[in-house]
Amino acid sequence: MTEFAAAVEVIVRSRLADDPVRATWAGLHDYDAELPDLTADGIAQSRANLRADIARLADFTPGDFKPDERLDHRLLSAMLQVDLRERTELEPERHDPSVYPSIAADGVYSILARDFAPLEQRLPSVVARLRKVPGVFAAAMQNLERSPRVWTEIAIDETKGTFEFFNETVSPLLANSAEGRAALAAAMDAVRDYERFLKERHLQRDVMAFAVGRDFFDYKLHHEHFLAYTAATLVEFGEEAIRLTQFRLQEVAARIDPASTWDALIDTLRNDTPSESSLLDEYRRSLDQARRFVVDRKLATMPPGESLVIVETPIFVRPTIPYAAYMAPGMFDVRQQGLYYVTPLDADAPPQSRREQLLGHNRYGMLLTNVHEGYPGHHLQLVHANRAPSLVRRYCDSSVLCEGWALYCEQMVLDEGISTDLRVRLFQLKDQLWRACRVVIDAKLHTGEFTFEQAVDMLVNVAKLERVNAIGEVRRYTQSPTQPMSYLVGKHQILDLRERERQRLGQEFDLHAFHDRLLSYGSIPVPLIAESEGAA
Fold first, then answer.
1. 3-state SS, residue 417
2. Rounded Cα distance, 467 and 456, in Å
3. 66 φ, ψ (degrees, to nearest 5)
4. Which of 281, 466, 483, 486 is surrounded by the most beta carbons within 10 Å?
5. Could you tell me which of 34, 18, 42 has the C-alpha nearest to residue 131?
6. Is the pTM here over 0.85, yes or no?
7. Is the bond preceding residue 67 a cis peptide, omega within 30 degrees?
8. Cβ-contact 187, 170 below 8 angstroms
9. CA-to-CA distance for 365 and 345, rounded, in angstroms?
10. 8: exposed, middle or buried (C-beta count within 10 Å: 0-12, 13-18, 19+)?
11. What is the spatial distance between Cα 120 and Cα 98, in angstroms, rounded to a whole number?
């Protein structure tokens, strides 16, 4: 092991020790009884640890590295520096009330979600984390100063979801443990207290804007994603993508029904939905179809031992996941099983809202969602990433690569023949239009050019999302600057890289080999892959 590789081991361990819940999801179970220390002293110590890790990397000089280590050093240094700037400038512990229910719920859920050990061996860690939940919420009520109102509203929903998760899922597991029941009761009391605090005190406080501002947005584009865009040029890219995609939509619509428009066709076709009771079963059948196609067409290597299970989206994160999402196996997990979340209809919602939610699960879009989340999208890519040749590349999680790959796959599998039904192509383009709108909304929301309502209206009027789901989408966008733009930007970067490789190799170009080569890098920014390929 080189000196740099040894330093990386220390740094990644340090980062995961500071974030025990992420460590559990990563498959490192040394900290399963812990939750982050969110007291003022704990936050200060965590930042000091991060600064020390950055300083450790700064001690290296270019001559210290093997060729691949230069890329790893550049990547890890950028990741840690962006993390530090976000912590010091955005101060999420002071302003984001979702931090606390997320840690409380996810801390317990991460122990239960995967069978990395028999349940009876995992339950002591559940109890240990439950004991720490009251401290999490005590720190929350001490730390929080002011927040964007929409964030407090999200946190109220997530806190309710946390209580339901503890009551409905965790409580039966601890029925035979007096110690566990006591820890759970104290945790649930703390959750109730926090919900009252949010409703009665924090919601009334002087609110703040959720926009991070142009300077910080551009900083993330350049230093986190290694992109040449600015917020302004990103808007130009997104607006041009909207125009081109709308043109292609009408082209395809005219081939289906010359007398109709694309949005009228979408309105009709999206009524072809499964029943609410059969929703997950239909997703599973469609997922199997997508996996078989990848294998049969040899689009990419299927890593041995991978598996993917479809489960209902955990209740505590449903407020910001209206459709579906994916949770990858950890980089240290021996069992490479992914979790594919599908959000069921809200049982408490009015009938019209429930109907709108079901429209988002229509059969034409379902195949594309399974491609995006499963095969050859997120699941295949992230299982490959867990086999990347260096710890840095296994630890990195570039949203531009991850989301760009998944969106790229939606078009690629249609180009390769997974379906010749033009109605599926129409939905693929409709979903691309949605991602193009995300680019514009992301930049304009966080530079103050769009209000929340304007962003929702754009998704409803341009991308034709159901309003209830558009609201859920924009709520998430307010909390994740530069993530929503990742999908379409990443897709275009991958297509550009593929075309350069096709031009370079001519008749020797092989799509399977290109995909395997791309996936071998792990989840790192596409520009760094392009640089490495150019230097190879």
1. coil
2. 7
3. -75, 160
4. 486
5. 34
6. yes
7. no
8. no
9. 17
10. buried
11. 30
Whole-number Cα distances in Å, 77 to 139, 266, 291, 346, 385 = 30, 46, 36, 42, 19
Q: Are 132 and 35 in contact (CB under 8 A)?
A: yes
Contact 439, 241 (CB under 8 A): yes
The size of the chain, in residues, is 536
CA distance 279 to 295: 25
How big is the chain by its Cα radius of gyration, in Å? 23
Q: Are 89 and 213 in contact (CB under 8 A)?
A: no
Q: Show Cβ contacts of residue 49 under 8 Å, excluding neighbours closer than 6 positions.
A: 14, 18
The token duo for 107 is 């801390």
For 456, other C-beta atoms within 10 Å of its C-beta total 20
Bridge partners, residue 310, by sequence: 340
Burial of 50 (0-12, 13-18, 19+ CB in 10 A): buried
Alpha helices (runs of H) in 374-447, residue ranges in sequence order: 378-385, 391-395, 399-415, 422-446
Which structure tokens are listed for 119? Answer: 């349940």
Give the full edge-to-edge strand order of the sheet including 324-327: 307-312, 337-342, 324-327
- SS3 for 282-313, per residue? HHHHHHHHHHHHHHHCCCCCCCCCCEEEEEEC
- Residues β-bridged to residue 342: 312, 324
Per-residue pLDDT of the chain (536 residues; tens, 9 = 90+): 899 999 999 999 999 999 999 999 999 999 999 999 999 999 999 999 999 999 999 999 988 888 889 999 999 999 999 999 999 999 999 999 999 999 999 999 999 999 899 999 999 999 999 999 999 999 999 999 999 999 999 999 999 999 999 999 999 999 999 999 999 999 999 999 999 999 999 999 989 999 999 999 999 999 999 999 999 999 999 999 999 999 999 999 999 999 999 999 999 999 999 988 899 999 999 999 999 999 999 999 999 999 999 999 988 778 768 789 999 999 999 999 999 999 998 888 888 888 888 888 999 999 999 999 999 999 999 999 999 999 999 999 999 999 999 999 999 999 999 999 999 999 999 999 999 999 999 999 999 999 999 999 999 999 988 788 899 899 999 999 999 999 999 999 999 999 999 999 999 999 999 999 999 999 999 999 999 887 44
Tokens of 307: 């598996």
15 to 42, 47, 392: CA distances (angstroms): 14, 10, 12
